[in-house]
Amino acid sequence: MFDTVLFDLDGTLTDPFEGITNSIVYALEKFGIEVADKRTLIDFIGPPLLESFSSRYGFAEDKARKAVEYYREYFSQKGIFENRVYSGVEDMLKGLKSRGVRILLATSKPQPFAERILAHFNLSEYFDFVAGASFGTERSQKADVIAYAIEGGKVNTESAVMVGDRKHDVLGAKANGLKSIGVLYGYGSSDELTKSGADFLAKEPADILKLIR
Length: 213
What we know:
two-stranded antiparallel sheet; 2 domains; alpha/beta; Rossmann fold; DNA polymerase, domain 1
C-alpha cells in the first residue's frame, strides 16, 4: 500500500517522558513555577514547545521563547538521553527496510537533537532522510516539518504515510496530502487521533508493519 513511511519521534519511536518533563521543570523553575507532579506535563510531549508554553502557562511570545531556551539548556546536556526506544520499534523498522520501504523522520524536535537521539539508540541506519524543526521559527509547525521531509526526501505523497501519536502528526499529514497512522502506545488518545482524521490506528509497533504490508 505504501512505499514510504514518515515517522514522528517522541511518543512514536521513543518514550521521552523523563527527558522532556525534566527539561520543562528546569525551564519553569527559572520563572519561579514549581511542578508537583511531572505527569501533569504529558501534554508537552508532541506539540511544538513554543505553542505549549504559551497555551499552558499563558506566556507571551518573548517569555515563551525564553522558556524554550531554558528547556534546551537542560535537554541538550541531560534530557536528550533520558529516553528509551519503545519495545518492538526496531524490529518494525527492520521489517520495513527488508521490504524495501523508504523510512523518513519528521519530528518537531530540532534536527540536531533528533539526529543525536537516532545515533545514540543505533537507529540512524534505518532512515533515508531526517527532517526536524529548526531552532528558529521558519520550520516550527509539524506541517512545515513534514513539508520539508517531503521535499528533501523526494517523497511521492500518493504512496507515503505519516505515523505519529498526536493530532499534530495527523493534521500535518493532511495539510501535505498524506495518509496517516495514529499510534495508541504513545501520548495521544484514540479519541484525539480519530477526531483529527487518522486513516488508521496501531495499538503497537508491529501493527504498523502489518498496515504498511
